[in-house]
Amino acid sequence: MENRDFTIRPGRREDAADAARLWMQSAAEHTSHDSIYTTSPEAERVMRRFLADLTSSGHAFLFVAEYDGRTVGFVSGELRESSPTFRPKTWASVDDVFVEPDYRNLGVGRALVESVKAWAKERGADGVSLQVAAANERGRKFYEDLGFREVSVYEVLEF
Fold this sequence. Notes:
Mean pLDDT: 93
Largest sheet: 5 strands, mixed
Radius of gyration: 16 Å
Number of helices: 4
Number of strands: 5
């Protein structure tokens, strides 16, 4: 998927470090929404390994957005089956999507999600699913504008 300003491509193992760097920025934004998202001291190293492993899995995805040779966004996740108690569905479940603030509103996030949709359709998935922080109004509006609808609310009770 090309744009005159950026390129979206499947992630490779060597993209894991840049994606993990971006994930840490995403985690910082999430923590500003709620402290439950506070990362562990090893988070970036763990994410680097996790994201590298995604690139060799046929049921997982990593797409990166490049602008002028620099990785400015990514999306990752995997195929997941719905609960066996519901009508069977397979979802391309987005675990993380992030675009650096300076590159937002250029269509990068939309293009990343479109890449996931195409990937999911190629594998016969029924759709794309994700979770978004309740306080992330900008993100919630972004997903709504892409056609996502809210179907459940994730609640926590901390001790």
